[in-house]
């Protein structure tokens, strides 16, 4: 066996298949990995990695957000930070600006809770409503809310928002819950169906008597469905919106990101593309558009915020 795990090495030693000196030498090679992570914490937004009997947790950023996560997820936020040093820094900067004075925030597609918890830690005045329909992600969301002691600020809901209410099938790959969606948008061969629930945004706000100030939405292609189901809410409360839009994800749902831009333009919202190249006011997504995250601000209600956002723009 190539590079056996520490557990295998211990078993080999205990059964006599490996001598004590050989076991100690081989085990050291596994233990060295722990010390390699010291450099990781120096060069990334990871401040601590805690290994304990209840699992592994990562402490991220100046907010010191503690996140537990599944052990087989390649794209979950803490692992992304380990791999790429930071997690959506420009997008986070824009969300900080948009949500700065928000009292009611909706995190639609909260996953394990990074942004919901970050909002709670930074915005003492805000209450966050986090929606996550996937059972495993929802369990980690609840665990992370508790670990960060922000339960008084965050309400978690184990269902999604869409353009209709009822029982639906979600598609999820066991190692890629960040791509879970109402359709198998990633075309994963190992995708499994999970029965879940959806409500419309309009129904939810009416039931909960909630007036959102800011909505973050990342639901792997179904973003337009969320907002079509919330047209009355958007018209009445005119919240700021930050949403992911990928052409490859929206296509299976039968729309193009430009349909989302048109939808919000009809409500008198302006659109700003947000990405590594900066922030740009746009009216159309083309084949040359690199950004995949967009901010939508009402032309009149958010005029002051638009001016502040323009100071960050590249155009």
From TrEMBL:
UniProt cross-references to InterPro entries, sorted A to Z: FkbM_mtfrase (IPR006342), SAM-dependent_MTase (IPR052514), SAM-dependent_MTases_sf (IPR029063)
Superkingdom of origin: Bacteria
EC number of this enzyme: 2.1.1.-
Domain Methyltransferase FkbM residues, every copy: 107-270
UniProt-listed NCBIfam families: fkbM_fam (TIGR01444)
Entry annotated with the keyword Manganese: no
Assigned keywords, A-Z: Methyltransferase, Transferase
Protein name: FkbM family methyltransferase
One GO biological process term: methylation
Gene Ontology MF, one: methyltransferase activity
Organism of origin: Giesbergeria sinuosa
